[in-house]
Amino acid sequence: MRQFRIEEHPILDVPLLDLVSFYFNNEKLKARKGEMISSALIANGINVFGHHHKDGSAQGIFCANGQCAKCTVIANGIAVKSCMTPVCENMIVQSAEGLAKLAEDVEAQEFHPIEEVSCDVLIIGGGPAGLSAATELGKHNVDTLLIDDKNALGGKLVLQTHKFFGSEEDSRAGTRGHHIGKILAEELAQYSSVRTWVNSTALFVFSDKKVGVLKEGVYKLVSPQRILNAAGAREKFLRFPGNKLARIYGAGAFQTLVNRDLVRPTQRLFIIGGGNVGLIAGYHALQAGIEVVGLAEAMPACGGYKVHADKLRRFGVPIYTSHSILCANGDETVESITITQVDEHFKAIKGSEKTFACDTILIAVGLDSLSEFTQEAEMAGIPVDSAGDALEIAEASSAMFNGKIAGLKIAKAVKGNTVEDIPDAWYSKAEVLKAHPGAIKEYQQLGSESGVMPVIHCLQEIPCNPCTTVCPTNSIQTEDGSLLSLPRYTGSCIGCGKCLLICPGLAITLVDYRKDAKNPIVTIAYEISNIEVKEGDTRVLCDIDAEELGEYTVESVTEYKKQHTSLVRFKVPSAIARRVAGFRVQDMAVSAALPEAIVPQILNDDAMVCLCERVTVGEVRSLIRKGINDLNQIKAITRAGMGPCGAKTCEVLIKSLLREEGVPVSDVVPNTKRPIFVEVPLGTFPGGGDK
Question: What is the pTM of this model?
Answer without folding.
Answer: 0.94
